[in-house]
């Protein structure tokens, strides 16, 4: 939901659909916990 809020605030309403947000997180969630932790964030950047 945090990603969804940020994307909406930035004007990316289509990308902010909940399923799209889940897909984005899954693409970088290496440990499978459903969250992007600091190490995963650093890898993503």
UniProtKB/TrEMBL annotation:
InterPro entries: EF-hand-dom_pair, EF_Hand_1_Ca_BS, EF_hand_dom. Gene3D superfamilies: EF-hand. Keywords: Calcium. Residues 16-45 form the EF-hand domain. PROSITE patterns: EF_HAND_1, EF_HAND_2. One of its GO terms (molecular function) is calcium ion binding. This is EF-hand domain-containing protein.
């Amino acid at each position: 939901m945090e990603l969804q809020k940020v994307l909406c605030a930035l004007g990316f309403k289509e990308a902010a659909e909940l399923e799209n947000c889940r897909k984005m997180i899954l693409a970088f969630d290496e440990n499978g916990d459903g969250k992007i932790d600091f190490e995963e964030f650093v890898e993503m950047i």
